[in-house]
Design a protein that fits this description.
The protein is mostly helical. The chain has one domain. 35% of the residues lie in helices and 7% in strands. It is globular, with a radius of gyration of 16 Å.
């Protein structure tokens, strides 16, 4: 919805799940000061949407750079020759930014959605059986 892409039943089901979670916990899953900040919150946990989805979204240019396809709230950090993590990775290293209310937004996919959701409902991640872990599909191929 935020990106202005066409949507159908999968998005409606995702929205319903978010609403139910908010009713149960009393807190929004993806709180934000505005549309951009709410999208940043989703990206922190769910990672980047498929390029195919961004290409079909009317408002993608408002939130993603047209030259890099990276979120506008992120910046590319120069790689260090001394850092062993940078040596084996061809992907750009991203840094997040601070939103209007002072909350730091991390780069896409840098937070663990399952562990955070379990913390909200008061369960420890290691207690949950793998078969029952939270599954999500906001940007999966079924929704693109």
């Amino acid at each position: 919805m935020i990106l202005g892409a066409r949507y159908g039943t999968p998005v409606d089901m995702w929205s319903l799940g978010c609403i139910v979670a908010e009713l149960v916990t009393g807190r929004p899953l993806f709180a934000g000061d505005d549309e951009s900040d709410q999208l940043s919150s989703q990206l922190e946990y769910l990672g980047m949407p498929p390029a195919r989805l961004l290409a079909r979204s009317r408002r993608a240019a408002e939130f993603f750079s047209s030259s890099t396809n990276l979120p506008r709230y992120c910046s590319i950090v120069k790689k260090s020759a001394d850092d062993p993590d940078d040596a084996d990775c061809d992907l750009p290293r991203l840094a997040g930014s601070v939103n209007k209310s002072g909350t730091y937004r991390c780069p896409p996919g840098s937070k663990d959605f399952d562990a955070s959701l379990l913390k909200i409902i008061g369960r420890e991640p290691d207690v949950m059986d793998r078969r029952h872990r939270v599954r999500y599909a906001l940007y999966s191929e079924t929704m693109a």
